[in-house]
Amino acid sequence: MTGPVPAGPGRPLPAAPPLARDASWHRLHPLSPLVRAGRQMMSLLVVLIGIAVLNQHQDGNLVADLVVIAAALVGGFVSWLVTRWQVAGGVLRIDTGLLRRDSRRFPLSQIQAVDVVQTGLARLLGLAELQLRVAGGDSSRGGRLACLRLADAEQLRRQLLALAAIPAGGLAPPATGLSDQAETVPDPVDRPAARTLFRVRPTRLAVAILLTRAGATALVVAVATWLTAQFSGSASVIAPFLPVAFGVVAALWRRFNGEYGTTVVAAQDGIRLRSGLVQTTTETIRPGRIQAVRLVEPMIWRAFGWCRLEVDVAGSRQRREDRAEGQRLRALIPVGSRAEAGLLLGELLASPPLPSQPAPAPARWKAPLSYRFLSWNSDDRYVVAARGRVCRETTWVPLEKVQSIRWVQGPVQRRLGLATVHLDVAGRRVSARIEDRDSAEALRIIAALPDLARTARSRAG
Q: What angle do CA 32, 36, 40 make, to 5 degrees?
């Protein structure tokens, strides 16, 4: 990381806001373009090398290939050159763009979590990407600093979390930089030690992934490919299966790579997570930022006493190219025992209620296989709802996080006198559903919950 960035000749940089007037601007690491290109750059190099080998006697084509590579590198360098960032006045500001300037400001008080991500190439170079998740944010507009030196990224993460904890109007210096970390964020001597709450077992993780739907698909594809090769007597006929096999294996690998080594630690600044085999991710979820907690128990896993504990935090941490991964909640426990899940659930929620109110008798006609697992409960802080037979899901939603409450009744439910109540949160990936309740009960629920949510928000504020 370098020092302050002067404005270029003939193209002055935009003036900083008043609170950031004395703050220093910083650039990203010079190798950032190489890391950000990542897999795309490697794919481009493989393709161009293959073309160059095929056209090795045609110097013109080789020159054209080298021009393409050079253009890509120059474009990455220009992007790095016009990107700068600073922290001042309780705001992280990121400026970028050559012809069209883009200046983004992220109030630190709205930070939901701060992640430090390292791809395989970044780990080799000692670099890391800092990602900010804010309420209502998405991957395309989120705060990303890619890339910084790993030590600088970790230090900046601690600084941002400490500044985010300062209430509005608090006594915080108007301008901060990495160089004044000791002055702006004191480190108390009596800071409590971090406690490790969970660490995933690699063998259990591998077996659990194979026992999922993706694992079953991989088994079917492998058996089909082997049978086709055996009956045909020729290996060439399995060519149509190769793209499917590659996709299935890639999906299994992405999940194993992303959840390998998952470690959850309770620290003063929040819940810390670290996971990944090739690409590692270090995240910190601030206290009070969890929108919902979900316990997932697939039928096959239940035979081993395994479960999965997930959380939803407002703001997506996934990039555009990882949108499929973003559909899943963040797994604090990718696979673990009920005792481990219960311990961590107690750290996340204070005395959460259990879903003890079963569904009414008419629900058996709408959901004959799963109506015994439809239940819910609530207190003055949380609402819990359970559903599912093949894959049992239990969702806890803090009432202070509820954004909207919906009363839904389909044609079959109207016939049976049933209704469903939905509770939506800012994370937008969880909707706690109190399914198939008696219509009168559903009306009582939707009448009572808004007042309970209002009281919970005033108590939390």
A: 140
Contact indicator for 52, 68 with CB cutoff of 8 Å: no
Torsion, Cα 198 348 329 400, to 10 degrees, reads -170
Measured distance CA(448)–CA(451) in Å, rounded: 6
pLDDT exceeds cutoff 90 at 264: yes
Cα–Cα distance, 266 to 264 (Å, whole number): 7
- Residue 137 pLDDT exceeds 90: no
The residue whose two tokens read 């005792």 is 339
Give 320's DSSP letter. G
pLDDT per residue over 282-302, tens digit each? Answer: 888 877 888 899 999 999 999
Residue 261 CA to residue 419 CA, distance in Å, equals 42
* pTM of the shown model: 0.74
234: left (phi over 0), alpha (psi -120 to 50) or beta: beta
Cross-strand pairs, 277: none
**Is the four-CA dihedral 329, 332, 334, 340 of positive or negative sign?**
negative
Query: DSSP secondary-structure letter at 166?
Result: S
The whole-angstrom separation of Cα 276 and Cα 256 is 8
Q: Which amino acid is at 448?
A: A
Cα Rg, the chain, nearest whole Å: 26
199 CB burial (10 A radius; 0-12, 13-18, 19+): middle
Is the separation of the CB atoms in 296 and 278 below 8 Å? no
DSSP string, 407-425: EE--HHHHHHTEEEEEEEE
